[in-house]
## 1
Amino acid sequence: MAKIVGAITTSHVPAIGRAIAKGLQNDPYWKPFFDGFPPVRDWLAKVKPDVVVLVYNDHGLNFFLDKMPTFAVGAAAEYRNADEGWGIPTLPPFRGDPALSWHLIESMVGEDFDLTTCQEMVVDHAFTLPMALCWPDMKWPVRTVPVCVNTVQGPLPSAARCYRAGQAIARAIAAWPGGERVVVMGTGGLSHQLDGERAGFINKDFDLHFMESMATHPSWATQYSTAELVKLAGTQGVELLNWLVARGTLPEKVRKVHANYHIPISNTASGLMVLEPMD
Ligand code: DHB
Ligand code: FE
């Protein structure tokens, strides 16, 4: 049986790609952010995953505003990097795991989740940069299963539904007969808003509450409607829905292995957590 060995949740921001390309990890602006990642890499070296299920939002590459699936799952043998125009370097392609992807799709559709299945898919900074932060040599030692959540254009899936989607992913992985060790990543957030009157909005109080809830009270954020989450976290802060999917794949009780929080990275409050199932 495949096993979820833990979850990593982290922000994604295109500027991180530029900082990596320019080697700015020790620059005073970037150091507090990059310093969050060595403990993540130590943990990965210990848990040795075979597969990463990567929950993120597509930023207009596969799905533009004219076609917007609520949940989409990749089922390709390979995923190539593209981006929506921030001019950041392209990273090496990622191996897929079509057999596990199709199992996940069958299992979730079997539980009445309506998915879009993608036999071709390109991946953007929300997928590539968290991978590059975990494996800076960019020789990806894992196969990947991309899970896209619509955090972009209303109506968005509710926080409660995202949490339940994570629980459904966990059931699918537990039923997979392979012996794979799986890490689930959730990328995006925390509070930020790129557009409109509140551009630049950040809510540290909310972010810290949310991170605490991820460790100790995982359904806390499901009390909020999408409109309330936008108000609390910003129009792009709702990317925290990806964190909730990842959190839903773990049992109620988890061990917080590591956390980091830093403001700002570009326009974003950056958060990072590593959680392990408590068994
Ligand atoms: C920024 C944050 C994002 O989540 C994103 O997708 C693009 C840009 C930013 O803070 O610049
Ligand atoms: Fe984003």
## 2
Amino acid sequence: MKTAIYPGSFDPTTNGHTDIITRASRFVDRLVVGVLENPSKTPVFSTEERVNQLKELTKDMPGVEVRSFSGLTVDFARSLGADLIIRGLRAVTDFEYEFQMALTNRNLADEIETLFIPTSAHCLYLSSSMVKEIALFGGNIDDKVPPIIKEALMDKYKNRRTK
Ligand code: ADP
């Protein structure tokens, strides 16, 4: 059974992420989406919120699971018996960082391979941070995130503005 992990912050999940999940899940038996609990970042959504959002978004996708993790990505992969790390690649600006991560992970665990999936054209310039910024200022994000994420963002920022 081929198991892969797709690790990331998913703060929040965008159409770019769901596109990668859909496409990656077609060529593995089990795809575990790993929501990183990163102590050096202050996310807009808690780990639990991000996990629940992804669970809702992937509930009809066979073979897709969602979990949170902390620590090294390769340790998370090993704990699941996964030998593939899926990462999405957007513009060339992603390349340097992703390449560095892939080589570092290979150095830590040479039995685990990183597989890059190129973004779909309509998600090329789509990032969680861009979506948050647009939402914060009341812009339209309908074509960038699934409806449940739009709702969650509107809720989050409404609360912030009234604090
Ligand atoms: P991280 O903090 O690990 O980069 P992200 O949630 O930003 O977490 O991204 C997780 C993965 O999803 C990364 O491999 C990133 O390149 C990929 N990704 C993010 N947005 C897109 C997109 N629009 N198209 C394709 N891949 C994407």
